[in-house]
Amino acid sequence: MAHNTFISYKYSEAKDLRNRIVEALGDDGRYYKGETSTSPDLSDRTTEYIREKLKELIYHTSVTIVIISPKMKESNWIDWEIEYSLKEIKRGDRKSSTNGVLGVVMKYNNDYAWLRSTVSKNDGHSLTSTDTTYLYDIISNNRANQNTPKYVCEKCQSIDALEGSYISLIEEDKFFENPNKYINNAFEKSKNIDNYDLKRTK
């Protein structure tokens, strides 16, 4: 099933990945909402003007993809775009639902070590940790926030990578193997929002 999708990203380092994501959506790419090469230039506009344009784009979407890149936190907009995506906004007699939100981790220097490290434990399991200094608080606070966690391993209490967090972080290689799987997963979580301790503000 196709979903109206907004992509939040730092233009200077992630525009190529953004373009690949739009292309990977194929026919569903027609539902993409967000900045394109033909979008009006917002660089010389006031903050409020830009904010209103972004609100209009996000309001009509149901899934937000956030590209997780090394300098993402230098953006003036990404955390605000996530916050707006998580809100329920009323306009007239219509109210938008909270978007599903998915993080796609950008490969940098040919791997993901800039953000994630994996260690093998004595019991044979591996543990992946994420360097949250690269993430906005609104992303970190919506990770591992399932009200009743589903563990993939009860012994080491490793949470499910997709279901355990409202905002899952998926490496770009995995994402491109099956984009609809991850977009649909984010959308389904937005329809079961009571399963998560959701933090809506940055």
Description:
By secondary structure, the protein is an alpha/beta fold. The chain has a single domain (5-195), classed as Rossmann fold, CATH 3.40.50. It has helices at 11-24, 47-59, 78-86, 137-140, 172-177, 179-190, and strands at residues 5-8, 32-33, 63-68, 90-91, 94-95, 100-105, 116-120, 126-130, 151-153, 158-159, 168-171. The strands form four sheets. It has a five-stranded parallel beta sheet, with helices on both faces. The radius of gyration is 17 Å and the shape is globular.
Strand order of the largest sheet: 2-1-3-6-11
Number of helices: 6
Q: State the distance separating the first and last CA atoms.
A: 30 Å
Helix content: 25-40%
Radius of gyration: 17 Å
What is the averaged pLDDT score?
87
CATH topology: Rossmann fold
The gross shape turns out to be: globular
Supply the CATH architecture.
3-Layer(aba) Sandwich
Name the poorly predicted regions: none
Quaternary structure state of the chains depicted: single chain
Q: The biggest beta sheet, please? A: 5 strands, parallel
Number of strands: 11
